[in-house]
Amino acid sequence: MKWYTDYLSAYEKPYSELPPPLTNRVKKRIRELKHPNPLVSVVAIAHNEGNRIFSCLWSICENNCHFPIEIIVVNNHSTDNTESILKKLGVTYYNEEQKGPGFARQCGLNHAKGKYCVCIDSDTMYPPLYITTMTKALQQKGVMAAYALWSFLPDKHYSQTGLFFYEKLRDVYFNIQHLRRPELNVRGMVFAFQTDTAHKVGFRTDIIRGEDGSLALGLKKYGKIKFVRSRKARAVTGYGTISADGSLFNSFWKRTVKGINNFTSLFHYKEKYEDEDSNLIK
């Protein structure tokens, strides 16, 4: 049985259809985890994630870690019942009315009290040792930030075999890219960093996407970016990126062409990236 099998039973389901004993259990666990002096702040961002956020929080509150944590959710201009669910679960949350992941993640960072900050996404589920594995990476000498890998959920549109090869090839590319340009591998849903130093750099709020990589780029000046390859930190998520490309093949082909065109640049350290106009928030 996959570690996420139980969480998947609630994924994409309306909160009203979930069994009360389950929601009460998660609510109780969230309450027990609240701590005035956490070592780690786990910060989720959510925009219209009413049918997925419960599975995310369920997986996080059942993580095995032997140090104090806090769970924070930033409700980023949701128009569905996301905020209502957060209230019912009793999780600490903040409303960020300026729409965009940069604004949402910065809001979470502003409220994080932990020495370490672990960023997650509300449409994603996390393995039992995720928080512990990411925290151990950050506690290594000279490490300023850490990022992990993720897998996609197989369904009728995306076969397990197709996703397996897609992810294997992507992971190989990431290993090469990590050598000189690790910031390009960073995704906010599997990203962790030293909180105090992140305050000095901050998330960019003037771009549509890339706020996670830009923070990693800024943090690289202060220390190492650790690539956590362990399956203990490998999250499972939906199909936001692939769906945007239309199909698994289109996504694979688009990234293959881009990878070939940019291959030689992977071996050159970069301190600054030029933004395309289409990625700027007007």
Automatic annotation (TrEMBL):
It is found in: Cell membrane. The keyword Cell membrane applies. Signal peptide: none annotated. GO terms for cellular component: plasma membrane. CDD domains: Glyco_tranf_GTA_type. Keywords: Cell membrane, Glycosyltransferase, Membrane, Transferase. Residues 41-176 form the Glycosyltransferase 2-like domain. InterPro entries: Glyco_trans_2-like (IPR001173), Nucleotide-diphossugar_trans (IPR029044). It comes from the Bacteria. One of its GO terms (molecular function) is glycosyltransferase activity. This is Glycosyltransferase 2-like domain-containing protein. It comes from Phocaeicola massiliensis B84634 = Timone 84634 = DSM 17679 = JCM 13223. The lineage of its organism: Bacteria, Pseudomonadati, Bacteroidota, Bacteroidia, Bacteroidales.
